[in-house]
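User: Sequence in, structure out. Go.
Assistant: Echoing your sequence, followed by the structure tokens.
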Amino acid sequence: MNQITLTIDGFEVTTREGASVLEAALDYGIHIPHLCHHPDLVPVGVCRMCGVEIRERPGVVMSCITPATEGMIVSTESKAVNDCRRMAMELLLANHQGDCLTCDENNRCDLQQAAAFVGIDHERMQRLRRPAQLMPADSSNPFFEFDPNKCILCGICVRTCDEILGVNAIDYFYRGYGTKIGTSGSKNWVDSVCVSCGECVVRCPVGALTSKHMQRPAREVKTTCVYCGVGCGIYLGVRGNQVVSVRGDRDRPTNRGRLCVKGRYGYDFINHPQRLTKPLIKKNGEFVEASWDEALDLVAARFSEARGRFAAFTSAKATNEDNFLVQKFTRAVMRTNSIDHCARL
């Protein structure tokens, strides 16, 4: 891939050809505040926070939609840039619900971090604020809720549902001050075509879309989702002995951080009090706990007795490699072709 060199705030920055000015700056470690940009989505420049000045061009341009070119000279700090950012931030905060301490995204909120970076005049903000006109939150979905009072209309959720999922369950509705994000016909989210994958939730830069039951973990364990044979990479968030959250592994090529509704929200069974954690062997008509060695020895003995009178049924939750091993074991070791699969056509 071809490389180009440009100057940002006096530093020579090398980036790939086709990258935007914002991507070049962030890759080099130069922070430019932004709210509507996400690496998984096509940039649109609607939040107006990532403005910069370029020597070859007049005025302030949005760095997320401006391609970096060879020899370009960029300034991320100037009076014009700071005035532009501050005005955009004031417009976002003027009617934004300010209960940050009780918000699920507190200390993780991109709006909170951008406001701290830009700097806000509290007296000016008080003059700009209008009387609160709270809209009802939509808690109909069993996995997440939407609070329009915290929405900044960045459109990340709309673009995610369109560009990544292709579902188009949500969109912009109405105009001007009445603009809001919603579902077709203003239905509740649970009654729309939403598939509850949570991709919009994990990309929301503020607390407008939040998961209902997830908690912040104390540590994370890297593993693989077991719901199907795709092999999506996940991180299980753990607090004590409880799994409290799931997030996708962006480095896993099978899913690149994306998850379905089962992979993201279907982890309650792990903590279920009736879940089996030890093998059970039937003795005298009752199941009793046993060690793994005892259970495996019993299975091996029974399999040996059943050779030639054996049948196997495999699962789509297993990987292709595991299913291949099962059929190989059935035919080569158990000497039978009686094997079937739950996902066969």
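User: And one key feature?
Assistant: The mean pLDDT is 90.
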